[in-house]
Write a structure and sequence with these properties.
This protein has 17 helices and no strands. It is mainly α.
Length: 423
């Protein structure tokens, strides 16, 4: 009721600039996402750093899983900091700089620098993922519940636009870069990604307003964080609906993360894509993801987040089935269109559904759990895919992803789309 009042509408209008600078951070951080996690660095790691070794898939999955394990462990502490600390932006800045500096360090990776390549990826991804705990928790502060879906979608849409810009800039560096004599071109792209993230994240730190905090940074956030974890687990009987969603999210987001980080490797090794074809493929994915994040964000506000998310997961299952059988590059481009639509919807709708079913006073705390479950889940899928792929092949590994997606979809049906009430 309050969301429809004149005051709420005025508040929403006045927050447009806040929404823009918040969404611009998505535009910034996807330079890391697309160059380091999906397109450039996965191929560079396997073909140059690991020199095409058979254990490349396993090592790539292991590095990603280690970084997510660390973030999962510290997420409760980050949630406590976000709630009690004197400034979420301060901690978002710290982790953003960690990501940027570690990404810049990838410039110094080359043939046989496997340990350095793994260590820098772990540090960069910790900075990226840990920062998202604070970034996501700003959503309830910049808009009303009625608009969670579309505002979350705007953020992801800005991210996909940023990805397109990043791919366009990186394209000339990647065309002939994945051979030992030309690796400097790819190394330069890592600096470009770090610089892009740095420049376009600045507006958030300068202009995004934050609710005043009265707590001191001298508080023991480790103790607070894990006491709240223990307390929240004890109170899950009061928040069963959130628990059902987080369990579903834990499983289906694992499958989605696995698809993302192995997609370029699959295209390169199984379908024998050229580097230029991989960049075109991801440009298609990012373009359709812009449409998906906006369209499904609006649809979720009208028809419900749960229904929209269920439709998205069914679309992911279709994608997995097609990917298992695909042999044609043309058909895989079509898979890219579907994957973009599903990616844009699943990420933005999950975030808005979590905002919708969580009581306002528990937002940041449960977004810490949301992050925890998302990060913890990403430990399993990449390791499983890398292990199966190294032992058998990538098509067999895709089956494991499809099973995870199906289980997540089934569990989602148990979630009630309403704000959880503490009783």
């Amino acid at each position: 009721m309050d969301d429809k009042s004149p005051d709420a509408n005025l508040h929403h209008t006045s927050n447009r600039s806040q929404i823009f600078v918040w969404a611009l951070f998505d535009f910034a951080n996807t330079a890391f996402y697309v160059l380091i996690l999906t397109v450039g660095y996965p191929l560079f790691f396997k073909e140059i750093i690991n020199q095409g070794g058979k254990d490349g898939d396993f090592l790539w999955g292991l590095a990603f899983s280690i970084s997510m394990l660390i973030v999962a462990i510290i997420s409760p502490i980050l949630g406590a900091v976000a709630d009690y600390g004197a400034g979420k932006k301060r901690f978002l800045l710290i982790f953003t700089l960690l990501c940027i500096l570690a990404t810049s360090g990838l410039f110094f990776t080359a043939e046989s620098t496997v340990l350095l390549g793994i260590l820098l990826l772990i540090l960069a991804n910790i900075g990226f993922e840990a920062g998202l705990v604070f970034y996501d928790s700003f959503l309830p502060e910049i808009t009303t519940q009625r608009s969670y879906g579309r505002v979350s979608g705007y953020g992801f849409a800005m991210g996909y636009i940023g990805s397109l810009f990043t791919l366009l800039i990186a394209f000339p560096f990647y065309i002939k870069g994945f051979v030992p004599e030309n690796i400097f071109n790819v190394q330069i792209s890592f600096l470009i990604g770090a610089g892009f993230f740095l420049i376009f994240s600045i507006p958030l730190f300068l202009f995004l307003k934050e609710k005043n905090r009265t707590a001191s940074l001298k508080l023991n956030f480790v103790s607070i964080g894990y006491k709240r974890v223990k307390s929240t687990f004890k109170e899950f009987n009061k928040y069963k609906n959130i628990g059902k969603f987080l369990l579903s999210y834990f499983i289906y987001i694992d499958a989605i993360n696995t698809i993302i980080i192995f997609s370029s490797i699959f295209a390169r090794e199984t379908l024998h894509f050229e580097i230029s074809e991989i960049i075109i493929f991801f440009a298609i994915v990012q373009t359709s993801a812009i449409i998906g994040s906006i369209l499904f964000g609006i649809l979720s506000d009208h028809f419900g987040q749960k229904r929209t998310l269920s439709l998205t997961l069914i679309l992911w299952l279709i994608i997995v089935v097609i990917a298992y059988f695909v042999t044609s590059k043309v058909i895989f481009y079509f898979v890219g269109v579907l994957a973009g639509l599903a990616l844009g919807s699943s990420q933005s709708t999950s975030r808005s559904l979590m905002s919708k079913i969580t009581p306002f006073e528990k937002k940041t705390e449960f977004f810490g759990f949301y992050s925890f479950f998302g990060k913890a889940s990403a430990i399993i899928g990449p390791l499983l895919f890398g292990f199966i792929s190294s032992g058998f092949n990538q098509r067999v590994a895709i089956i494991s992803v499809g099973v995870l997606m199906l289980v997540g979809l089934i569990l989602l049906q148990r979630v009630e789309e309403k704000t959880t009430i503490n009783v």
